[in-house]
Design goal:
With 70 residues, the chain is of the alpha+beta class. The protein has helices at 2-25, 43-60, and strands spanning 27-29, 36-40, 63-66.
Length: 70
């Protein structure tokens, strides 16, 4: 049982670290409204990290968008 808990914690740490890397890499200020957005490169990446984006938005006010702004 302990190995399962450790594996879950390790996976959770990698998931959050991956999200932080994406957030830092793809953050951009949109000139139109002056807000910072995370511009996900694809919908697959967006949906992978969608659960954590809700928490991020609630805690930091970050906004999210798939692909570049038009």
């Amino acid at each position: 049982m302990r190995k399962v808990i450790i594996a879950i914690v390790v996976l959770l740490v990698f998931y959050v670290a991956g999200y932080v890397a994406v957030r830092q890499t793809y953050s951009e200020v949109w000139e139109r409204d002056g807000n910072v957005y995370v511009l996900f490169p694809s919908s697959a990446v967006y949906y992978l990290f969608r659960p954590v984006t809700y928490l991020d938005a609630a805690l930091t006010g970050m906004r999210f968008h798939i692909g570049p702004h038009q």
